[in-house]
Amino acid sequence: MSRYALYFAPEQDSKWWHAGCQWLGRDPETSDSIEQIRIPSVLPNVLQNLTKDARRYGFHATLKAPFRLAPGHQVEDLEMALRAFCRRQQATEVPSPQLEWMGDFLAIRPVGDTSLLNQLAMQCVSQFDHLRAALKPEELARRQQQQLSARQLRLLQHWGYPYTAEEYRFHMTITDSLNNTDSVDAMLKAAGRHFDIGEPLVIRSIALFHEAHPGENLRLLRRYPFGD
């Protein structure tokens, strides 16, 4: 069954969007494959493998994680609610975005006050939750196999995702796990150069992503602009 997600994706003409799509090798808005950058001492197939899962999801920051629609609801209901929600929002700048570790993978992270980002994400989690189908037992069991805290388990059971509320960390994933690879230093240096972007990173819309079938690439269906 298909799933939908509410993500932040930089605007199509943004340097951040072009950099993220080129790094991952895919544009989720057009579904085009893009030649990834060349990194000295990292073979192209190695770079592909080290960005495989991140590429499937596309360059984004999660606001509401992928979910199935609740019985009785259609995508039109989600689109209508999203349009109304975005009309009430104002543009928010991501403070000082820079490359950081998130556990064993690399991501673009804000540095500074993230309260507005956290607030937006929690609003997306809560205000669209009536459209979310409950997790299936196997989905819940798979999540529970992760090393989650007691609080994260409660969030998982309530919202269908463990990294919400105070557990939320705004980030834009650019690699899979870099454990057990000899390419860490080269990846760090290349990513640092590639994402050294002087342009502000501003949230001006929410992007609706769609996963047609389990395991398929997620596609950016449409951006819903703020205040429009």
UniProtKB/TrEMBL annotation:
Source organism, top-level taxon = Bacteria
- Return the protein name: DUF1045 domain-containing protein
Give the originating organism.
Answer: Undibacterium jejuense
